[in-house]
Amino acid sequence: MKRVIEPCTYLMASGFRGTIYTGVTSDLMARIAQHRDGTFDGFTKRYTAHLLVHFEMFGTMDQAITREKQIKNWRRQWKINLIEEANPRWRDLACELGFAPLSGRSAGDGS
C-alpha cells in the first residue's frame, strides 16, 4: 500500500452525492483506515461516510487547515462541484491508494 504522508484536505462521502465530510490530516492513509474501521466515534461513523472522493495535498499543515476551513464554509453544491471536477462518478479514491473496495458499497453507480 502506497503511503501518503503529507498535509492534506480530504472529502469522504456516504455514496454518490450522499453525505459529505471534510477533514484534514498529515497521514491520509492512516486517516482513511480510521474512518473505514470506525475506530473513533464521529460524523463519518454516524453517517457511514467511508468513501474517499477527493483530496488535495499541501506543503504545510497550515495550508491544509486553511483549505479545510474554506471548504467547510462552502455550500453543499460547491463541494459537489469540486468532487465532480475530477471524480464525476464519485469512485472511492482509496482503492487507487491500495485499499480494498468496501464490500456492498458503491459510489459510481448512484447507489
UniProtKB/TrEMBL annotation:
Which molecular function terms from Gene Ontology are attached? endonuclease activity
Q: Which family does it belong to?
A: Belongs to the UPF0213 family.
Pfam families referenced in this protein's UniProt entry, alphabetically:
GIY-YIG
Q: Quick check: keyword Isomerase in the entry?
A: no
Tell me the keywords, alphabetical order. Endonuclease, Hydrolase, Nuclease
Q: What is this protein called?
A: Endonuclease
Family matches, as InterPro entries: GIY-YIG_endonuc, GIY-YIG_endonuc_sf, UPF0213_domain
Gene3D superfamilies on file: GIY-YIG endonuclease (3.40.1440.10)
Task: List residues of the GIY-YIG domain.
Answer: 5-82
